[in-house]
Fold this sequence. Notes:
The protein has helices at residues 32-39, 168-171, 182-189, and strands spanning 2-5, 12-15, 19-21, 24-26, 46-52, 58-64, 72-78, 80-87, 98-104, 110-113, 117-123, 128-134, 143-145. By secondary structure, the protein is mainly β.
Amino acid sequence: xxxxxxxxxxxxxxxxxxxxxxxxxxxxxxxxxxxxxxxxxxxxxxxxxxxxxxxxxxxxxxxxxxxxxxxxxxxxxxxxxxxxxxxxxxxxxxxxxxxxxxxxxxxxxxxxxxxxxxxxxxxxxxxxxxxxxxxxxxxxxxxxxxxxxxxxxxxxxxxxxxxxxxxxxxxxxxxxxxxxxxxxxxxxxxxxxxxxxxxxxxxxxxxxxxxxxxxxxx
Length: 218
């Protein structure tokens, strides 16, 4: 297993070593010892799976609040997604910025999204299956969300004029700025690259050496 970090501290890319022969491909997709070496003392306790029929399905942006915050290890079993992780840690120097990366059934990449991040994705092709392990159990009382198209986040979902498919719940999610008390917003606004609602001055995403490494056909 290979690991790679990002400009935003916390998330980690896992790249399994693929072994190919005339029969096909074999890879270890998860090893607890290597995971803990890369991430630390984290236990993954639940595995979830989603199947999205239409292309351009957007799920997110989702997270759980403390004390039931979740880390997620996300991979694609079938299809392809544009995966998004938004830093919502109030004391973070990269608060409000995000990572954007393609995960596909061809590249086998997995994205670790630690607690303190909101997560969402757009399916790039129909009938996409996403599997993710989480570090705490689902708790409806701690379940939260942020608007996928929050202008303060300036996420480029690469829709190019196409209409996304969203649940009623995700269409009604609030903006990030409503999730924090005024004192927290004032504090992070004083941090370089912190949240500034009046300018929405975030980069669309971090440069991603992996995105676009393969062509996606419908």
